[in-house]
Amino acid sequence: MLVILWRLTKGYRLHPWDSPYLKWRIETWSGIEAATITPGVFLAFCWNHRRELIRYLRWADENSREFSGSW
Fold it and tell me: Contacts by 57-66 with C-beta closer than 8 Å and gap 24+?
């Protein structure tokens, strides 16, 4: 699970709230406008939705293992 989180934050590991990919994912999932995502909004979102985020990371990790083994 940490491997997929590491990949998703590439280039923005010390400031993930600036990641265009993560902003886009938050915007499409929650409806929060990407341009309005600040560190506080990002951290509040992550805290309030931590269970769903952990479930997503587990799902993404399982799927990435399936695809990496099939090549």
Answer: 57/1, 57/4, 57/5, 58/1, 60/4, 60/8, 61/1, 61/3, 61/4, 64/3, 64/4
User: What are the pLDDT digits (tens) for 6-43?
Assistant: 988 999 999 999 999 999 999 999 999 999 999 999 99
pLDDT at 1: 82
Question: Cα–Cα distance between 34 and 21 in angstroms, integer?
Answer: 10
The Cα–Cα gap between 49 and 43 comes to 10
Both structure tokens of 44: 């509040």
- Rounded CA separation 1/20 (Å): 21
Domain residue ranges in the chain: 33-63
